[in-house]
Amino acid sequence: MEGHPKRPDAPPRAKTLRMAGGQAVLAALVLALGLGTTAWLAQSQGRQERLRIEREFQQASDKLFARTLREIQLFMEVLDSIRQLHSLSDQVTPAAFDEIVRKGMIYQRRILGAYGFAQRIPHDMRATYEQEGGAGHRIVRADGTGGFEAMPEKPEYFVLTYQTPPGGLDIPPGYDFGARAEDLAAIASMEKVGVFALGGAPAGSVPGTGEGLYMFAPIAYGPAGGGGELVGFAIGLFQPERLLATAMGDGSKGIAARLEAARGPSSPDDAFAFAREFSLANQEWRFVAEADPGYRTEARSRTPRIIALVGTAISLALAGALVLLAGRARRIEALVQKRTAELAEANRKLEAAMEDRRELEDEVLRISGHEKARIGRDLHDSLGQKLTGAMYLFGA
Question: 250-289 burial by CB neighbour count: b if 16+ within 10 A, else e?
Answer without folding.
Answer: eebebbebebeebeeeeeeeeebbbbbeeebbbeebbbbb
